[in-house]
Specification:
It is built from eleven helices and no strands. It is an all-alpha fold and 311 residues long.
């Protein structure tokens, strides 16, 4: 006959103590190495330093290939009677950049065009963002305004140059108008796309909390639109430089800009100065594009990282 042990006399066995995970050497951890200034740089920093040659060498190699091709065209393809069309790179450097009397004139004209581009871009940003916010709040505004915005973008600027000169003359205001027309559409469309790209679940959350239109626009839609907004700003910034040069090329009164310099150099067959002015115009566009890229990193770089394809 078996006896049943008394329940009161039963004592459960003690549970085994949980094993602590092996954290390894504290000095090798990422946090301790980040806190220790004498620790070696992290793997991400080493990767970035290692990627510098891969980032710098391709444009340098391509630039060297383009200069070599430039020399080939000037020396082999063009005969001596036509080499004024494409002077040697060292002649452009010597005459256009190193002779200060000529280079200072180009810089002064470039500054005038940069001022026109800045004014036109500021107006285009203001109009584009206001219209985009208006179109994002009601579909009736989007349906009403969108066809006209596409029409303005599709009209060739050369076709409306006479109208612009009739209405605003041939001075600086006409150049600003050209900048606004050329650079308005990208900032408008990118801002509208960004405002409409906020997640539906977040909209439902704001609706649940009875948020108004301005609160929803300020705290949800506009922060979600910032990456697209800055993409539009970078595009419009480059186009504003083009608009300033094109407007200056056709409207010759007032302060002389880089477009008028390009026109004069082409008429006088000054190949070295002409190429210098073209190169400096490109430099202005690149600087403006990179400036807005830097502003984008400062504003949204801490919480937004674009996905890149490795390889």
């Amino acid at each position: 006959m078996t006896t049943t042990p008394d329940v009161a006399d039963y004592t459960p066995a003690a549970a085994p103590a949980p094993e602590m995970p092996d954290l390894g050497d504290p000095d090798s951890s990422g946090e301790d190495s980040a806190l220790d200034p004498s620790a070696p740089p992290s793997a991400s920093k080493r990767i970035r330093v290692a990627d510098l040659p891969r980032m710098v060498l391709p444009p340098m190699l391509l630039g060297g290939a383009l200069i070599t091709f430039w020399y080939y065209i000037t020396r082999i393809v063009l005969d001596e009677t036509r080499r004024f069309l494409l002077p040697y790179p060292h002649d452009v450097l010597q005459v256009g950049f190193l002779e200060w009397d000529k280079f200072s004139i180009i810089l002064k004209a470039l500054g005038s065009s940069a001022k026109v581009a800045g004014i036109g871009l500021a107006i285009a940003i203001t109009i584009g963002m206001l219209l985009a916010m208006l179109m994002s709040q009601a579909k009736i505004f989007e349906r009403a305004l969108f066809p006209f915005m596409v029409t303005v973008q599709a009209i060739p600027i050369l076709a409306i140059v006479p109208l612009i000169s009739f209405w605003w003359g041939t001075g600086q205001p006409s150049r600003v108008i050209v900048c606004v027309i050329i650079s308005l559409f990208p900032i408008l469309m990118n801002t509208l796309f960004g405002l409409q790209s906020a997640e539906r679940g977040m909209h439902d959350l704001f609706t649940l909390h009875h948020a108004g239109r301005l609160t929803r626009l300020r705290k949800l839609m506009f922060p979600a639109a910032l990456p697209a907004v800055f993409a539009g700003l970078r595009i419009s910034a480059g186009l504003s430089v083009i608009g300033a040069i094109v407007g200056d090329f056709f409207f010759g009164r007032g302060e002389i800009g880089i477009g008028q310099r390009i026109r004069r150099y082409a008429f006088q067959l000054d190949g070295e100065e002409l190429l210098t002015a073209v190169i400096m115009s490109s430099v202005l566009g690149v600087v403006v594009f990179w400036t807005f890229g830097l502003i984008q990193k400062l504003v949204i770089g801490k919480w937004y990282e674009p996905q890149a394809i490795s390889g």
